[in-house]
Design a protein that fits this description.
Layout: E1 31-37, E2 46-52, H1 82-85, E3 97-99, H2 103-120, E4 137-139, E5 148-151, E6 165-170, E7 181-184, E8 188-192, H3 201-204, E9 211-214, E10 218-226, E11 231-233, E12 237-240, E13 243-247, H4 251-259, E14 268-276, H5 279-287, E15 291-296, H6 298-305, H7 312-321, H8 323-329
Parallel strand pairs: 9-14
Antiparallel strand pairs: 1-2, 3-11, 4-15, 5-6, 5-15, 6-7, 7-14, 8-9, 10-13, 10-14, 12-13
Biased composition (Basic and acidic residues): 74-90
Pfam family, one: DUF179
Region (Disordered): 53-97
């Protein structure tokens, strides 16, 4: 069984717009889900049909657009990533990379020290700015590529997204088929790739012992890779310095990096499924109080992915954000 043919029954709590998501869907059989959004969870009752079609020619059918959607160039396609291909070096022999500075760390230092000054303002004491720790998180006013969406208590009782953390791989555009998308990074499946008997040679050999993670209710297979230091490889889409993502079409390059000793299998995380929205849809969900938006350190994201606790990362990010966010991390789940 191929990793890209895994079937996981989705449980979609909010609504996924039928035109918001990537066109690559690795499954062969179409699925149709009826989604009803209760009034208590959004502004009005909504009933939406989401169709995920794995046929390569599904874009010819106007009714075949789905949450696994058609025409999104922000996510790699099942058979090819046009955006990633345009950045490939002509020499396919030795992996090439370039150095990137993580401006997010600089911003985090500014946010951290601003908060420190505000806390000390009433005391009239002057305190030297402190160094940023290896793990950090702070709130953002709006989503951006590389941020995390942290589920609020309004999603308690909603199985798919309850106390979830979504790593946003793309922030999306106004184009209806280029919406924000990401993967849930705190839902380990307790299965290894080899347990699924993959037909892909690289998955069956190089990555056979890698753990699988549930990435979201929409049908696709995506993996994250942690690069060495601040380098980003040109064969993959960089999300933040030190973290890239790829899909089925880039497994050859991923395997080559492992075989050449540049990376190890432990530097990869494989996800079954992903989450996707339209741009305005995600903003509405944030404004409605379903998500807290935050920036956090890359090692926090990747390091906790392998944790067996679904809520560990959720709690840690909220605690690092401080204030009312830290209080939320200590609250028991609401009874729905």
């Amino acid at each position: 069984m191929d990793l890209c043919a895994l079937h996981i029954k989705p449980n979609i709590p909010i609504f996924n717009h039928p035109n918001s998501s990537p066109k690559f869907a690795p499954f062969d059989l179409p699925k149709v889900f009826q989604i009803t959004v209760p009034k208590s969870m959004l502004y009005s009752n909504r009933s939406i049909i989401v169709r995920a079609n794995g046929n390569k020619n599904s874009h010819n059918d106007p009714d075949s657009s789905s949450s696994a959607g058609n025409g999104d160039h922000s996510v790699p396609e099942g058979e090819g990533n046009n955006h990633a291909e345009s950045h490939k070096p002509s020499d396919t022999g030795t992996p090439k990379f370039h150095h990137k500075v993580d401006w997010r760390e600089f911003r985090a230092i500014l946010v951290d020290n601003k908060q420190l000054l505000l806390n000390k303002q009433d005391e009239g004491a002057v305190q030297e700015p402190k160094r940023l720790g290896s793990k950090w998180a702070h709130p953002l006013t709006s989503p951006e590529t590389g941020c995390v969406l942290v589920a609020t208590e309004k999603l308690d009782g909603v199985q798919t997204f309850e106390r979830s953390v979504v790593f946003l791989l793309g922030s999306g555009t106004r184009h209806p088929q280029e919406g924000p998308f990401g993967v849930i990074i705190n839902r380990p499946l307790n299965k290894k790739i080899k347990n699924m008997k993959p037909t892909n040679l690289h998955l069956a050999t190089t990555f056979s012992d890698c753990q699988l993670h549930f990435g979201g209710p929409l049908e696709a297979s995506i993996y994250l890779l942690k690069t060495k230091g601040k380098e980003s490889f040109l064969d993959f889409e960089e999300v933040v310095p030190g973290l890239c993502f790829g899909s089925r079409n880039s497994l050859d390059q991923a395997s080559a990096l492992v075989k050449s000793g540049v990376l190890k299998p432990q530097d990869f995380r494989f996800f079954v499924g992903y989450a996707g929205w339209q741009l305005d849809q995600l903003r509405e969900e944030i404004e409605a109080g379903f998500w807290h938006v935050a920036a956090c350190s890359s090692n926090l994201i990747f390091g906790r992915i392998q944790s067996s606790s679904s809520e560990g990362l959720w709690e840690e990010i909220l605690q690092l954000m401080g204030g009312s966010y830290a209080e939320l991390s200590r609250k028991p789940k609401r009874d729905i």
